[in-house]
Prior knowledge:
Blueprint: E1 4-6, E2 12-14, H1 18-46, H2 54-81
Antiparallel strand pairs: 1-2
Protein name: Histidine kinase
Organism: Tunturiibacter gelidiferens
Amino acid sequence: MNEAKVSSQGTNVEKIPEEISVEMRRIAHDLSNALEIIVQTSYLLSTAELKEPASEWLRMLDGGVEKAMNLNQSLRKYIKEHTSN
């Protein structure tokens, strides 16, 4: 049975089994690396003078990148709060 851990909000949460948490951390790390490539590419594209509709596509990309980064941060926080390490 999994032990309870206190979250940053002060509530008890079930811990993720170690073998699963290790794989989840690896995947979250790889996701962060992939997102960083997208963030850097988005930045480089923003330095170019893009015409419509390409500039609108870049704005859409930036919005998606921001959402993906926030989701990844939430995932990493969840993993941290639900593991013993």
